[in-house]
Amino acid sequence: MILAKCQYYLDKTAPKKLERWIFFSGLLMLYFIRILYIQTHYLVTYVLSIYLLHGLIGFCTPQEESIPDPFDNIDEEVYIPQTVDDEFRPFMRRLPEFDFWWLSVRLVLISFLTTFSSLFDIPVYAPILILYFIVISLLTAKNLYRHMKKYNYNPFYVAKESYKVGND
User: Fold this and answer.
1) Could you report the per-residue pLDDT of 131-150, keeping only the tens digit for each?
2) For residues 148 and 154, is the Cβ–Cβ distance under 8 A?
3) Which of 133, 143, 120, 141 is closest to 72 using CA atoms?
4) Are 123 and 28 in contact (CB under 8 A)?
5) If you write DSSP's letter for every residue of 15-76 in order, what string do you get?
6) Within 10 A of 67 (CB to CB), how many other CB atoms are there?
7) CA 38, CA 117: separation in Å to the nearest integer?
8) Distance separating alpha carbons of residues 150 and 159, to the nearest angstrom
9) How confident is the model over 4-60, as pLDDT tens digits?
10) Residue 150: CB atoms within 10 Å
């Protein structure tokens, strides 16, 4: 009964993309305010960041099996379609936008709940985790950028091409 009610409200939020991401941003800001206030649980925040980065990778990569993973060795050669089926297909994400949002919300909620338990407060040196996360993010972004350039897709561009009709 409770799960059906939750699913009903999740289905109602599906077409409201902007509102969902505003809610997620507010939830994430609330989490970071909590972390700054209590000055603990840095390892939980690091793990949350890694999982959010992993979700972003799934969101940015295509679903098609013919296109390799972004972490494969990428040649600098130009991609040439081999068959008719290998030509243009619309961009299908490995992780759809709604699923990425729902994964992100659940991760932040779980992380937020763990800040109320001292069991998850493992002492670490936070600057090293931050530096390590930045390095991982930059390397991942570089690989994704190379992959997007090689296979000529842009996961963030969703508008259709429009043509002007008129007397020029």
Assistant:
1) 999 999 999 999 999 988 88
2) yes
3) 143
4) no
5) T-HHHHHHHHHHHHHHHHHHHHHH---HHHHHHHHHHHHHHHHHHHSB--TTSPPTTSPPP-
6) 18
7) 12
8) 21
9) 999 999 999 999 999 999 999 999 999 999 999 999 999 999 999 999 999 999 998
10) 17
